[in-house]
Amino acid sequence: MRVRFAPSPTGHLHVGNARTALFNWLLARHGGGTFVLRIEDTDAERSTGASEEAILEDLRWLGLDWDEGPCRGGGHGPYRQSERGPVYAQAAARLLEQGAAYRCFCTRQELEADKEAQLLSGAAAPRYAGRCRQIDPAVSQRRAASEPFALRFRVTAPSVAFDDGVRGRVEFPGAQIGDPVIVRADGTPTYNFAVVVDDAAMAITHVVRGEDHLSNTPRQILIYRALGAAPPAFAHVALVLGPDGKPLSKRHGATSVADFRERGFLPAAMVNCLALLGWSHPDGREVLGLEELAGAFTLQRVGRAASMFDSRKLAWLNAHHLRAMPPERLLAACRRELEQTGYLVPGDAAADGWAARALSAFAGQMELSSDAPAATR
Ligand code: GLU
């Protein structure tokens, strides 16, 4: 089994994405598989090295180590899409040659006009009208010398169906899919194309991701087939909502893993809380460590319903994990707070034994490591 987490480095790791990373990691660890980390940075304008660094740091803090990926290497690299240009170019050339892809010379104005016309005639979701679909290959080649063009994938299947690991049988009529752009006029691959080329090249067997990608899946399956590769098993996990039932967003306060780390939450509590967003333990137990989670995790126990993220639940779990820590680890988890408030002097190891014992005695009254100074007062 080979699974992957494929974040776009356009910001911090948020609760929803961290849950996706965790489910993939748990699936790999449960099945003795390989967890691959791939950075999807084809959007050069929005991707930053700083975001990539922040995501790697968040994953490390959560304890989600990767077997292949940036800083680690592996036999299927490189693991940043920005470094894989030749792989996409080769796959695109193959599809063009096979006739599975064609050059599209439509201008932005033409595409806009087609879209307007379709909307006016009552289409719910406009799709590519097909102007360049039938251009003779020789003519297309000639025009390519002087006109900018994108590459589109030719969708011919009447429908695409697959068995989703969470949602069961899913089917999309081909007419709804439209011919997606796979390479933009500037030569960069689109998400739907790069993700398939990479998952195939990296021999990914299972893809667990957010439900927002469900409608991309039929396009991706068709591209797999055209490339002669077997699609992986897909599982689309329902969205994470805030306590008010609306999609989790900044309005709900802290939503990034870094925010919670800053506030003094333990990584063990964070992964525990993330795991319960859609998954449940067969025995109904809620307080679980990473090892226990990996031992018990299966996709069969991931529900279809949207889950709710509540930071009060996270705090409750945090209190449990603090209480279960051996004294030295508890002290390590609270050291920053104790030093910042002057309860411990940095470098004064003589006080450690006393501080660890005091903390353990009061752990039952603490919810966060930031409660440590007050608890030991
Ligand atoms: N880079 C995509 C995202 O962050 C990955 C989606 C996928 O897993 O295919 O949404």
Any chance you could write out the topology, listing elements then pairs?
Blueprint: E1 2-5, H1 15-30, E2 34-37, H2 49-62, H3 85-98, E3 101-104, H4 108-120, H5 137-144, E4 150-153, E5 159-164, E6 168-173, E7 181-183, H6 191-201, E8 206-210, H7 217-227, E9 233-237, E10 240-241, H8 257-262, H9 267-275, H10 290-296, E11 307-308, H11 311-323, H12 327-340, H13 352-362, H14 372-375
Helix pairs in contact: 1-10, 6-7, 9-11, 12-13
Glutamic acid (GLU) binds at residues 6-8, 40, 195, 209, 213.
Provide a descriptive summary of the structure in words.
The chain is 40% helix and 12% strand. It is an alpha/beta fold. α7 links the parallel β8 (206-210) and β9. The strands form five sheets. A three-stranded antiparallel β-sheet has the order 3-4-7. Strands 1-2 form a two-stranded parallel ribbon. α9 (267-275) crosses α11 (311-323) and α12 packs across α13 (352-362). The mean pLDDT is 95. It contains 14 helices and eleven strands. It is elongated and about 80 Å long. The chain has helices spanning 15-30, 49-62, 85-98, 108-120, 137-144, 191-201, 217-227, 257-262, 267-275, 290-296, 311-323, 327-340, 352-362, 372-375; strands spanning 2-5, 34-37, 101-104, 150-153, 159-164, 168-173, 181-183, 206-210, 233-237, 240-241, 307-308. The structure holds glutamic acid.
Question: What attributes characterize this protein structure?
Answer:
elongated; two-stranded parallel sheet; binds glutamic acid; alpha/beta; 14 helices; 377 residues; 3-stranded antiparallel sheet; 11 strands; 12% strand
